[in-house]
């Protein structure tokens, strides 16, 4: 059995050792010639916590045999509590960053990768220049000093690469980590802590025969999103969490590039959710299963009391459908196009026609992806007679919407404890539609596709571009709608009545509240296999929008002017330009 639980005490000891260096300035700082940081530290900012975060190439033992080359953020604490940085040794994941609400944080980010990089603090509300916008990416050998105050509620957040056109590949290579924020409100509750509070980062990866990571292999991977062949949890294969017979807080984060999970315990025990992206819910919510799309987090109250010692309990992803063309019934992998048949449903006409526009082979596809300026029709031609592997059906050994094990818990030992799930956790300030500046005219963001590009309101990413509809007055509450074909009956694929694709939509800055979802009847195939697993009650920064669905939300734009991204958190979509700026003025 591979046990890779996070024994925080041990890590704290490790962090403590590196903490001895706290009084010293980072060596790199001294070695650096003047101006190596694209943004320097400001002397007026008095940090409570200060650390170096270096993006570099390393190799880790992800499976037996040869080590896997990964890109990793590694940390070194310079100032502050030694518990602030907790390493996950032997993995590609960066250290877990433990922050407290109100803390002032300075991060000396250094790029030792062979290409540009920049770090984004997903879910944290920080000024534009601290947010890791791709316009700030720094070259090899350079760096960027971040300085910001933690104003977020207690919760599970993350950091990851956000480099122009490279986010998907860089995160896949390993550039991501967790952020855990605590505050007084969280501390006052009788929740499981210490070793009973476990982060669980869900990712999927494919490896070649040499144990090396394999990224996008086909047009399908690039266009629909990368799906790996196996689960990697907290950076490890076959992850097993050893537990005692008592209550735990499990902080689940979907760190996958494109994989959507439908999480459920194998024995049908319901999931008790106590927090989502932006922290604690008002009260615990119980679901038979919980959907977790890329970028989303959910904290579970998981009580293992009464379970038999030496037994296992598997967290599975259950079958669902409708999230992706060719995956209509959750059994679609390797069917249709991949076998060269005519079977792939809608793909036979719309998309595949476009995809065969070049010359049908992989290189033609790639050119096509890079930018075909003629429109879909003129590029069309091929039809469905698939060139093997170029279809939209997944080649992954773990098809999206299939049924598979995600991780296991192993009941190790008996332990009596008295934790009771609190019936109330917190009180939310409920945002009201009537208070929105645009209560009568929501800002509509349509998700679509044309010319081989996923688009937002028909537009692709522009580094510093923002349209009038994307320009927002600071200090206002905004009503925003993500429309995935609800209104047009077309969603993404350019033909009505076709099954489209689910998009997990993310907005930088403050957390939002979801106030309404609507689904189009004629496009609702599979919706019932997904929607009962939504947890929309709390503060969110990512929302899954299924084909035919429209999601309405309320979000404040306070404190900071400037450009703040919103995008699909399917990272292949993001990297291809399914991203835009809100300009707060
Ligand atoms: Cu987690 Cu702009 O992303
Ligand atoms: Cu973000
Ligand atoms: Cu998307």
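^ structure tokens above, recovered residues below v
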């Amino acid at each position: 059995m591979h046990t890779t639980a996070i024994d925080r005490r041990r890590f704290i000891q490790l962090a403590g050792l590196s903490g001895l260096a706290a009084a010293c300035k980072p060596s790199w700082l001294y070695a650096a010639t003047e101006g190596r940081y694209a943004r320097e530290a400001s002397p007026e900012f008095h940090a409570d916590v200060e650390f170096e975060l270096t993006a570099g190439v390393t190799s880790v033992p992800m499976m037996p045999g040869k080590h896997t080359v990964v890109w990793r953020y590694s940390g070194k604490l310079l100032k502050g509590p030694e518990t602030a940085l907790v390493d996950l040794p032997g993995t590609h994941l960066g250290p877990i960053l433990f922050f407290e609400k109100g803390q002032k944080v300075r991060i000396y980010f250094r790029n030792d990768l062979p290409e540009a990089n920049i770090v984004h603090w997903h879910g944290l509300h920080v000024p534009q220049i601290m947010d890791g916008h791709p316009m700030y990416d720094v070259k090899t050998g350079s760096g960027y000093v971040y300085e910001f105050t933690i104003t977020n509620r207690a919760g599970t957040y993350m950091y990851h690469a956000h480099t122009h056109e490279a986010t998907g590949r860089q995160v896949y290579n390993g550039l991501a980590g967790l952020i855990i924020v605590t505050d007084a409100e969280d501390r006052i509750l009788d929740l499981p802590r210490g070793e009973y509070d476990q982060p669980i980062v869900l990712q999927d990866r494919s490896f070649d025969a040499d144990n090396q990571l394999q990224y996008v292999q086909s047009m399908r991977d690039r266009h629909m999103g990368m799906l790996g062949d196996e689960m990697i949890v907290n950076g490890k294969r076959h992850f097993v969490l050893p537990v005692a017979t008592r209550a735990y807080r499990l902080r689940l984060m979907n760190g996958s590039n494109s994989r959507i999970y439908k999480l459920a315990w194998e024995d049908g025990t319901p999931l008790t959710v106590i927090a989502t992206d932006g922290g604690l819910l008002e009260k615990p919510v119980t679901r038979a299963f919980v959907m977790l799309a890329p970028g989303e987090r959910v904290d579970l109250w998981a009580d293992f009391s009464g379970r038999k010692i030496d037994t296992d309990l598997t967290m599975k992803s259950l079958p669902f459908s409708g999230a992706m063309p060719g995956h209509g019934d959750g059994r679609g992998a390797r069917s249709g196009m991949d076998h060269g048949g005519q079977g792939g449903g809608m793909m036979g006409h719309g998309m595949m026609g476009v995809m065969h526009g070049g010359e049908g082979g992989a290189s033609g596809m790639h050119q096509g992806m890079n930018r075909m300026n003629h429109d879909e029709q003129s590029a069309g031609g091929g039809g469905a007679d698939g060139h093997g592997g170029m279809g939209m059906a997944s080649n992954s050994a773990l098809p999206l919407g299939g049924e598979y094990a995600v991780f296991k818990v192993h009941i190790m030992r008996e332990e009596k404890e008295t934790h009771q799930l609190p019936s109330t956790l917190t009180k939310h300030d409920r945002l009201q539609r009537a208070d929105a500046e645009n209560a009568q005219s929501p800002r509509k963001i349509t998700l679509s596709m044309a010319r081989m590009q996923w688009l937002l309101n028909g537009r692709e990413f522009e580094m510093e571009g923002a349209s009038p509809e994307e320009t927002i007055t600071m200090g206002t509450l905004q009503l925003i709608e993500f429309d995935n074909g609800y209104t047009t009956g077309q969603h993404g694929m350019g033909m009505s009545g076709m099954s489209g694709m689910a998009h997990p939509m993310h907005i930088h800055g403050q957390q939002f509240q979801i106030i309404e979802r609507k689904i189009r009847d004629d496009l609702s195939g599979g919706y019932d296999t997904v929607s009962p697993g939504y947890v929309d009650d709390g503060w969110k920064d990512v929302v899954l929008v299924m084909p035919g669905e429209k999601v309405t939300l309320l979000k404040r734009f306070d404190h900071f002017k400037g450009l703040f991204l919103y995008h699909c958190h399917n990272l292949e979509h993001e990297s291809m330009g399914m991203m835009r700026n809100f300009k707060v003025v």
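Confidence is low (pLDDT under 50) at residues 1-27, 30-35, 328-391, 494-498.
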